[in-house]
Amino acid sequence: MSWLTLEVFLTTVFLLVLVGGFAWWRARAWWRRQQSTLAELRDSEERLLLALRSSRDELWDLNLASGHLTRVNALTEVELAPEVRFQSLDDYLMWVHPDDRERMAEPFIAHLKGQTDFYEASYRIRGRVGGDFSWVLSRGQAVTRDPRGRALRLVGTNRDVSEILARDMELERLNRDLTEIKGELEKRVEERTRALKQSNHELEFTLDELKLAQNQLVESEKMAALGGLVAGIAHEINTPLGISVTAASHLQTESTGLVKQMQAGTMKRSDLQRFEQEVQTSAQLILKNLERASRLIRSFKQVAVDQSSEMPREVVLDTYLDEILLSMHPVLKKTGHQVAKRCATDLKVLTYAGAISQIVVNLLMNSVEHGYPEGQAGQITLHCEGYDAEWLLLYRDDGQGMSEEVRQRVFEPFFTTRRGQGGSGLGMHIVYNLVTQLLGGSIDLLSKPGEGVEVQIQLPRRVPVPETGASGGSQPVVRGIRAIRGDA
User: Fold this and answer.
1) Both 429 and 335 in a single domain?
2) Residue 48 belongs to a domain
3) pLDDT of residue 487
């Protein structure tokens, strides 16, 4: 073989090897690309399967030409096999709840005809356990159509929504129950409101009755106090009147005897002198006692007039307090209490004199009835001071005092420490109302057990004088005063 023939042979072999190597390299590269594509496809399928499993959705693929249905990640609650073939839609509807077949078929057929962009329906499908039905939400879309627009292949998902619908149904039931409960509550509230209105009306009526009863009690207490005052005054007047009657009777006897002596002619100068002395003594005794009775009557009359007139007048406090104390003398004399008064003789105030009288009388009666143990005499002081626009009344007794609990409640209506013993609990309440409402002042009470009581009353020196109408009357003011005192 010549060298040329060998060279051609070697060249041919080289070219064959080169072409074979290139073909092998291309085949290897294609194989690698295929393997990579398959790996990516497996990864994609795995991700899709994982996504379906995590979402608990079922992927279905329906070939309409063959009727073949493939279910991926098939719902375990549904009795259908993962691979199943249907001859027609009616075969599939046999698995659907009879009440839901129309609900499933209508949107499905509409999408097959191209009337909608996608298919969606909720219905019940036969389950595996006990023949129960499970609710599914089915969504799908035609991915292949023929030139005439008829769907050839549908792909979609099924989701088990039994729990969601059960919750929705439970929520709907709860809403219905809440609506019923709301209606029942509204009915009860309406009934309760009517009952409360009725109760409120009854309470208002009861309150009016209580106010009327309170006013009657206040009036009864006033009448009882007035009755006691009248009885005391009557007893006090009885003594000087009795002495006057006795003296007048004695004078009449002496006069009759002297007339008989004169008619018999036996009268002596000494008899006339003795008769003259008896006349002077009896006349002085009668005058003194009648003047005493007159002072008592004037004092009682002034206090009684002040209690009934209910119009402001100017009073000299020192003199007026003497009149009040004189009217209370019968009560104080029986208890042995001594009252000391200290007041400027020129202190004048324009005020409701009857209210001042009632305040002082109630304070005195409170000390008499509550301030001292039975049989113990005490010392009571009345002190008044005048300022520019106000005046101060200080009342003190050295009795047994009161506890803090009693002190805090002393002005409350119907509060008394002598319940069942004749106490009504209105005396100090009347004092408080007269001071704060009628007279426009303030009152404070200080006391400790065993240290007596001190009442500080601060009042204006001139109370407003009520305006009178054309007829000169002042009934609105009078009614207001009576309301504070409890008069009818």
Assistant:
1) yes
2) no
3) 43
Residue 315 to residues 85, 215, 352, 442: CA-CA distances in angstroms? 121, 29, 9, 20
pLDDT of residue 317: 94
Residue carrying the six token digits 């209506």: 413
Residue with tokens 């009078």: 478
What integer pLDDT is reported at residue 184 of this predicted model? 87
Q: Is the dihedral of CA 395, 401, 404, 407 positive or negative?
A: negative
Residues 413 and 454 in one domain: yes
Q: Say whether both 220 and 332 belong to one domain.
A: no
| Residue 418 CB contacts under 8 Å (≥ 6 apart), including other chains | 369, 370
How many whole angstroms separate alpha carbon 95 and alpha carbon 388? 107
Residue 351 and residue 332: Cα distance in Å, rounded? 26
What pLDDT is attached to residue 335? 86
Q: Return the DSSP state at 42.
A: H
Q: Which of 302, 365, 355 is nearest to 331 (CA)?
A: 365
Residues 337 and 478 in one domain: yes
**What is the reported pTM?**
0.44
Sheet arrangement for strand 133-145:
83-85, 68-72, 57-63, 151-160, 133-145, 119-126
Q: Do residues 372 and 400 lie in contact, with contact meaning Cβ atoms separated by under 8 Å? A: yes
Whether 359 and 238 map to the same domain: the answer is no
Does residue 129 belong to any structural domain of this protein? yes
**Is residue 213 domain-shared with residue 321, that is, in the same domain?**
no
Domain encompassing residue 348: 310-485
Q: Please report whether residue 29 resides in a domain.
A: no
Spatial distance between the Cα atoms of 334 and 329, rounded to a whole number of angstroms: 9
CATH of the domain at 462: 3.30.565.10
H or E segment to which residue 69 belongs: strand 68-72
Block mean pLDDT (10 aa), the chain, length 488 = 67 82 84 78 64 69 88 78 82 88 92 90 80 86 87 89 84 88 87 85 80 67 60 64 77 83 82 82 77 67 54 90 84 87 93 89 89 90 94 95 90 71 68 89 94 95 74 41 40
Check whether residue 176 and residue 254 sit in a common domain: yes
Task: Summarize the chain as % helix, strand, coil (round to 5).
Answer: 60, 20, 25
**Distance, C-alpha 138 to centroid of its chain:** 59
Q: Kindly state whether residue 125 falls inside one of the protein's structural domains.
A: yes
Number of domains in the chain: 3
Looking at the DSSP assignment, which residues form a beta bridge with residue 451?
none
User: Of 160, 181, 205, at which residue does a domain stop?
Assistant: 160
pLDDT number for residue 39:
73
Classify residue 282 as exposed, middle or buried by CB count within 10 Å of its CB (0-12, 13-18, 19+). Answer: buried
The set of residues, in sequence order, having a beta carbon less than 8 Å from that of 306 and lying 6+ positions away, is 313, 352, 353, 354, 356, 357
Same domain as 467, residue 351: yes
